[in-house]
Design a protein that fits this description.
single chain, about 190 residues, alpha+beta, 6-stranded mixed β-barrel, about 20% helix, globular
Length: about 190
């Protein structure tokens, strides 16, 4: 990821957060991110980290190995890390079956494979990516617009990316959100 600050908090509606945080000086870009651990149907013990991003993300630098990236308004598609695809023996065009939160089994088409070494410290086989609106709809009401999203992670890029400016930005985010009573963690890429 090429974000300077990550904000993790209790699930919140995205639009009010965006409105408050975009008013803070030195904010260049804010993108929502959501993640869930999914249980693969192929194996009771196999799990993946499923990350929901905006298909037009500028803060996740993808390195496509094969296939394509996610498209807007596209449901039930997934991009796997090469690590996960190799472990599972899956390719572009294959179906991935999984459960989130013990709900019904989902069957999604693999549309791409990326070189990505993000892995949850050995607890999962790797990472997979999907459209944030689709992931959000699995746990919340369907979200057709960012204004309908519920998010627990935000990625932020600063205009001035110097360490001092990024630290100030992180403190400003904390000050802007801490009064709401929500549990919150603000971290910089330097930490």
């Amino acid at each position: 990821y090429s974000s300077d600050v990550t904000i993790s908090l209790n699930p919140q509606p995205y639009q009010p957060l965006f409105h408050v945080l975009s008013q803070i000086p030195n904010v260049e870009r804010i993108e929502p991110r959501e993640s869930q651990t999914i249980q693969l149907s192929q194996s009771n013990r196999s799990k993946l980290d499923l990350v929901g991003l905006d298909p037009d993300t500028q803060l996740y630098q993808r390195h496509l190995v094969t296939g394509r990236w996610l498209a807007k308004n596209e449901a039930n598609t997934i991009v796997l890390s090469d690590l996960a695809a190799g472990s599972l023996g899956l390719r572009v065009g294959d179906m991935l079956s999984f459960r989130i939160n013990q709900k019904q089994v989902e069957h999604w088409t693999i549309v791409g494979i990326v070189h990505d070494l993000n892995k949850d410290l050995g607890n999962t086989l790797g990472v997979a990516y999907t459209n944030i609106q689709v992931l959000n709809a699995l746990d919340h009401a369907p979200a057709t617009l960012h204004s309908d999203l519920t998010v627990s992670d935000l990625m932020v890029r600063a205009r001035d990316r110097s360490p001092a400016a990024v630290n100030t930005l992180a403190k400003d985010f904390y000050a802007a959100l801490a009064h709401s009573g929500t549990q919150l963690q603000v971290t910089t890429a330097q930490q």
